[in-house]
Input
Amino acid sequence: MSDMMYFDHAATTPVHPRVIEAMTPYLTQVFGNPSSVHGAGRQARQALERARDQIAAFMDADPQSLIFTSGGTEADNMAIIGGAMAQAERGRHIITSQIEHHAVLHACEYLERNGFEVTYLPVDETGMVQLSDLKQAVREDTVLVSIMYGNNEVGTIQPIEEIGAFLRERGIIFHTDAVQAFGVLPVQVRQLPVDMLSVSAHKINGPKGVGALYLAKKIPISPIAHGGSQERKRRAGTENLAGIVGFAEATKVVAEEAEERISKYKQMRAAMLGVWQEEGIRYHVNGHPEQVLPHILNVSFLGVHTETMLMNLDLVQIAAASGSACTSGSLELSHVLQAMHLGDEIENSAIRFSFGITNTVEEARLAAHSVAKIARRLARDR
Output
């Protein structure tokens, strides 16, 4: 993939060389089961707990509050289904937003089929949830609210501090899907009014197939996987030791490079927009103008259909996306853009560029010129 300009880091990221190096011994030499009592098992257990301590330190969390999962989707499902089931006696009403990742939306739909009621909050044209809408939606039987930290398609950062503070007063459990924000925003759980928070390794140059759910003390949860007593009886199954070690190393790399990365992403964003302005093509930036994740740029090239633009970009070796990677294989219109009510022209022409450690500002400029050329040609051909 060396010649490809990869601008789809919100979908997944390349594994950092330091992460591969950290993982290798746990794939070849230290391969014991962390639950085994012999020496090999104890060695594996020590590595597992060391990794837990490192990730917890990065998030400013108590290590015991982290539950390792197979990724963000499982963490979201565990929080929503496990959190709701544990409180079913208290109430069966849940609140989320219309722009959540499908890992949250489909978990909520599953609960609806099992006797729960879900309110899906609308968003404004910038993709932001309004606290006033949440206040109106809260009922006596509301037991759980799940609102994402930063949106994976348009990058809008949600007002989770205000939402969390309001829910704390009401004694309602608050979960946030921080998968896309983790590593680009400071996710410090002791400073955030959240009870549960989902993260994933492969969005921060760690391996795929590993994530974690932060679960605050005394927050009830029913396990959704049944079997052994791993993760303090909260998530059965032999831990993905090499993956967890890789996850820990990825957080260490992020901690060292975060400021530099964020400043680079902002420069890339500005460079792309600058080129399109100079070239005089018709475009519209989707998402909040200020409260936005620095590595996500969602733009509609007016008069050019999303799929047509993506195919043409692929032909010139530029990888971008139409939105969430979980749905971009299908031709469905983005549920996020639909919820923002931007109108057909904008919704049908949106492209997401997302930046990462392999990109340079010069490359962003080059890609933007290619995009402008394609947009101009396709608009002319219509």
